[in-house]
Write the structure tokens for this entry.
Amino acid sequence: MHTFKPLHAALMLALYGPLVAVAADGPATQSAQQMTAAREVHHDTSRPLRDIIRDLPQPLVTNPAEYVVPNIFLDLDDMAPGEQLGPIPPVQRTVTGTPTPATTVAANGMRIGLGGGGVPPDTTGDIGPNHFFQWVNTSWALFNKTTGAIVDIPGDADDVVPGNSFFADFGGLCQTTNRGDPLVLWDGHARRWVVSQFAFTSTTAAPFLQCVAISATEDPLGVYHRYAFAYPLFNDYGKMGVWVTQDGGQDAYVFSMHEFGASFAGSSFALAERRPMLAGQSAQFIRFGGIETFGAIPFHVEGNNALPAGMCPAFVHFSSSGPGYDLWDVCVNWAAGTAQFNPTPTFVESAPFVIGLNDIPQLSSTTRLDDFGGNTMYLAAIRSFGATGPAEAQGVINHAVNVGANQAGARWVNFGFTPGPAAPRGVDVFSSGFEIGEFQDNSVPAVVSSKRVVDQGTYAPDANSRWMGGINMDRSGNIMLGYNVASATLNPEIRMAGRLRNDPAGTLRAETQCSPTGTGAQLGLFQGRARWGDYATMGVDPNDECTFWFTNEYYATTSNSSWNTRICSVKFPTCGNADFLLETTPIGRIAVCGTNAVGSVRVGEFGTLGGNVTLSQGTVPAGVTLSFGTPSLAAGASSTVTLNGSAALANGVYTAQVNGVAGALNRSASFNFGVSSATAPAPSLTSPASAGTGVVTRPTFTWAAAAGAVTYRVEVSTNAGFTQIIDSGTVN
């Protein structure tokens, strides 16, 4: 028999948790957690962009080296002083099985002499229904999805257009400056293009603007709704995402920034009100600043399925406090004009990895390229799979890590997101335990999702470095990662490596080539360093939700600054085929407490399954049998599973497998459960003390292990009698 003694922490707090609430129509306020709430500085609706382009003067030809796209850097020593390189954990050093498919389109994009107006190119782009839309620092262009050829834009001689063309006749710095740090995304739920770049005249004196334009239709050359949002500090290295939920309550365009005053002032997370922006109306803009992180980015909803109702926008970065990742949630109530943010992130543990590199070597130059090892690379994609698909949303990120011998490896992580319980009305508490009276009038309360690492890996199959990546996931749950590859024996190239959902955990397949081979090296230094990137982007075609499109930079020949960009597409041929997976709950370990373990299994389909899944018992411990409440399930349906005989097992931790069959498809999943033959003794809190007062609002709970305990339950109450539990959690 397994059991555990509840662990109660009586914390008599006047306020539980750091509550930050702002009113979007009120004045900006300041606290230990910086926050601003306002509306746009200015907004309007443009003429059709094709008409604007015809009227634009031809841009002056300038020496590209005269303009370096601003970016203020913090290195590892700045973020983690005294950090020492520890032992290198295991990484993927070999590849097996079927290689990543060959590219379908592999074409040159813009370059230093064709749209390039500075260094580095800040290569970004996304795929829409009819075009690939690429933007490199100060210019953008459209490319044919079939041939990769640049699309003719009437009235423009070379078919590349200045970035600030979106803001012609708009007025202010959005119109008169063209600084770069561009962003372009396809908002598939609204079928609109969203583009953005920053605007400023000085990095030390306001105004500091983020300029945003949303197309009124899916036509990238049509009418745009245009906005200028103000930041109180210099807003550097902005990253953007589209966030859409089934109820619309958390819909937003989300932004992360590095902010600078006299020095680095922390990162900021901001939400712009998406629905009125789609209609060209005034929009709320809520920003939280002073966040202690550098390199965090927002998640962007990929695909045609919205996220579960009420799920709050999320931001992510690797953690400096241990092997794992920090994830923040920003919850908004647009109707009330309020938002909630806890600056202390949720920590999700992962396999070990080592940050901190010595820059990237090249064959034809002694210049070592920026590794960008302090940043989570753009973009962070999150995908929902619809009512009959897997219930757990899936997110993917990538970043460069140190795999030893001055070599960078491409690290990738697949997260799972599950909606937590809604904040109870009347109690007004987040699912994380933080009070939120502002959400009472929402039809669907805000929900902070639970998060876990589903899969992860570090790809370093040879002696080359891999960095400057972009990652995404298709509608079948397959992953594709693109990046640059270089070493002392290889000039920088662009390659991609992917994995099918059912490939061995932690592995990517052999690479496919995106750029030409026999490339050149970069000789130049910019801002005193070998700037490279500063980012790349991977998107997924909205027409099939299967074809990946990647854009990144390379050098055709060795030169000071004559960079090129590449646009490549690749698709797994099985994407969209009928398939399914079994989802077991609880995801963590089941505590067997005198009675047999009971769980649940659900069928999540990919494609259209077209029939039921028959459940059966797989490998189980001796003496255990499985019984199913409903042994035959349609896609999206669930059944209880009783692990008969589990309570009679000896002390220990066990696994029981359940199988599912649908035609020729055979999939399995497992339950983990722990058994103890005696009740564990009651543990006692070491810190904070029971019945303690004046405790910090985000305490770390510590207690001595109890012999025989498999799990512990922590409860927080507003009174010593524990008659009103406001938060609880179970840990192993």
